[in-house]
Amino acid sequence: MSGPAKRVTIRDVAKHAGVSVATVSRTLAGDYPVQPATRHKVLQAVGELDYVRNAHARALSVAAPGAVAIVINSVATAYYSYIAQGVEEQATAEGRLCLICTTGGDPQRELAVVQMMREQRAEAVILVGSVIQDDDYKRRMTRYAHSLADSGSCLALCGRPPLGDGVPAFTVGFDNTGGAHAITTHLLSAGHRRILYLGLRLGQSTSDSRVAGYRTALADFGAVYDPELEVGCGYDRSSGYAAMKHRLAAGAGDFTRDFTAVFAATDVIAAGAFQAIREHGLRIPDDISIVGYDDTPPAEDIGLTTVHLPHAELGRAAVRLALSGKNPLVEAPITLGTHIVVRNSVKRVGNVR
Amino acid sequence: MSGPAKRVTIRDVAKHAGVSVATVSRTLAGDYPVQPATRHKVLQAVGELDYVRNAHARALSVAAPGAVAIVINSVATAYYSYIAQGVEEQATAEGRLCLICTTGGDPQRELAVVQMMREQRAEAVILVGSVIQDDDYKRRMTRYAHSLADSGSCLALCGRPPLGDGVPAFTVGFDNTGGAHAITTHLLSAGHRRILYLGLRLGQSTSDSRVAGYRTALADFGAVYDPELEVGCGYDRSSGYAAMKHRLAAGAGDFTRDFTAVFAATDVIAAGAFQAIREHGLRIPDDISIVGYDDTPPAEDIGLTTVHLPHAELGRAAVRLALSGKNPLVEAPITLGTHIVVRNSVKRVGNVR
Fold first, then answer.
1. B277 lies in a domain?
2. Which SUPFAM superfamilies does the entry link to (chains A, B) (predicted)?
């Protein structure tokens, strides 16, 4: 950025940070565990003195700030990208860079990414998204948590269940059971009793908690639980479209459909279902009421009543916690509340059956 | 993953790769320039032998594959996240990890990210998105290109103008002028002559090329060019809403509006404009025709006629080129074509004026 200046040495950095040369060296090399507080002091000194580790790196003439990494399945899904945006905002506010790593849901890529972030000396690694909580998953996460802790970094889980005692990982999640209970109650209060749940994915942590809220709300209203009304469906628009199309076609011979409302497990599923319902010649909400979950595009544009998730706040909370210096072994999980956003996709009906 | 095994040493890696121990060391440390072909051999040997550089890293027991980094303003914008998804797909297909770095449009963060990716030994760094092509920008990019080339990596620009001769950078972009020309012609062919361009951002490379296509199409049809019809607007939904609202309110006293169609510079602007038009009591396309640009959500859900950009293909093309081993000093820029997707937002009208 500027002309030649006196070369800053590792000794200048050590003096400025008030630590030994060996500590600076270890912090920058990442070969040995360094306390987060010490690491911050060193990196701050590196930043303030514009110290660079070798002659080639001088070409770019800045010291790299610390980094926070967020690991997600895909960046083209609003749920993930909104959480990532929160991580990015908070990381930036705390003077860190933000790296977003994608895995496509592949555990091998996840492992490679976590290792890379460890070598990159990321201060925190945040893993996001629904999981199947089997033994393999728990073993893998426990290994990541210990490995990152050993290197002075830490693991934070977002939208995933806690790993349990003795595993050094922070947990931040949404109250999905509460959100699903509230939106199902919204439909029940409008007189709906036969509510199609579109998006069943057995064993997936996020799906399980939403279905649990749906079932509890039905029970609270004394509505009959009918497993026929819980339909499996991928979490994308075309799956929502296909599943709704199939369900509407199946009921074509009957004098009436066996549901008056749809609870789509995500807004994107709801958007696909909207199209199928329209193509079937039915009107929303006059003929069928529908609600979604997430409050991501296109909910606002199609007038979908849905559950708002504070995606960005989840990301921010994870970063705040991960950089807080608190002990992940004793911190309680954080659960963020949700709320319903009422738009134009639900109509009051007389009770059926 | 498995139990204890004989420790692989740096000498094993050097032998396996057919290079010297010093070369392996340099490749892994990233302190000296290494030829890409050599680097690949070393990293392949590292992978095949499951070599890890120090005892601590053994906790995770895999060798990190090479990485491709994509640098974008924000991950919560579909334009960027769709391109990032293409980068991710191609990087995975070529056995690389994908890192997504966000800058919020801040050159300081961009610089820090590029430096980090250089230290991380990313094989390619892909910078995406519209820019203001001033001298500072060109100097910065030239510096990145040389610095990355020195370290055996390379720079690729996506959706940005080429840097010119002598700068080692690949360029891949959309034909925005062609796309804007085609969609404007679509409106002109439907009889519209007074077309509001919503989203002017003078000096921004992407905006400039879209506006150029709009103006040329008007000229080709002999329509009068009226700078009053080019309206500045941020590239987000609420800006589109506010700008449209303001424009409709301004024309409230007139016996007629001074435009019959709107060309929104992005689909997201169009979505905001949709809402403003509806709130004004007007129908699309009966009262106003509107087209967008990008073909990202919510275009499909609101029935918006728009210009489809092959976002993912742009990302894939950038990765293919960056990992091709070709010489960025002599490779010609790649320009990807676009096409119109016709939905339900344009109505044929009698010519006005």
1. yes
2. lambda repressor-like DNA-binding domains, Periplasmic binding protein-like I
